[in-house]
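[09:14] KT: can someone run the structure on this one? pasting the chain below
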Amino acid sequence: MNTTLLPALSLCHRELIRFLRQRNRVVGALLTPIVFWLLIGAGMGRSFRAEGIDGGYMEYFFPGTVLMILLFTAIFSTISVIEDRREGFLQSVLVAPVSRMSVVLGKVLGGTVLAVGQAVVFLLLAPLVGVRLTPAAVALSLVVMTLLGFALTSLGLALAWRMSSTQGFHAVMNLLLMPMWFLSGALFPPSGAWPPLRWVMFANPLTHGLAALRRAMYWHTGAAPAATSFGVALLVTAVFAVVMFGVTSRVAGRTVRGDLQ
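[09:31] RB: done, structure tokens below
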């Protein structure tokens, strides 16, 4: 256990230090979702109504913005894999007497901590839109955000592991990950979508992750515009996290010559 956790924690610590030393990255990661939230929320105004929401679109879009923070931070943190390959650091880690799972776990933990930390900072703005967070709601929200951050970081790492350019990674992100967020119910509820699109949204794991987050944030009222119940949504999110970590470990476990070039 120590031979797995110690290298993983060391890599996790390295990811945190790298992030904190890049001030422009810190500012961009914190302000970009807030700008999206303000612009989109102000643009929609009070023309939007959803069951269980009294504060208009700004309140409805708030959990979706938290999900966007988790997505952006978790995904962009995995770009460091491409940079590590260019700098030779990844090659040094791969030839070290540590398992690939330790490497994957360290990268995933680092991205998860960064994603959840930034989401918590944004969560402090909840009272501004009428979302009253009780201690139980905060605790449950942290659990859901941790699972989502872990799953999304694993997904990003699986995509970035074999790539050699950040341009290719951005192209895949725009093609796959952004539509996943758009179709999660962050911008509009699945109940009002076109029926075929509604099935696509229901099959999207982020839809259930966002539903779990909404249920957690409105735990004190029990009313939230969510697609599924909290138990089902949390179970799907947990399975999504486990499956994505397994896929990433399998991708990283395949020793190919490209890993060392």
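[09:33] KT: thanks! The CA atoms of residues 12 and 33 lie 24 Å apart.
[09:34] RB: yep, looked fine to me
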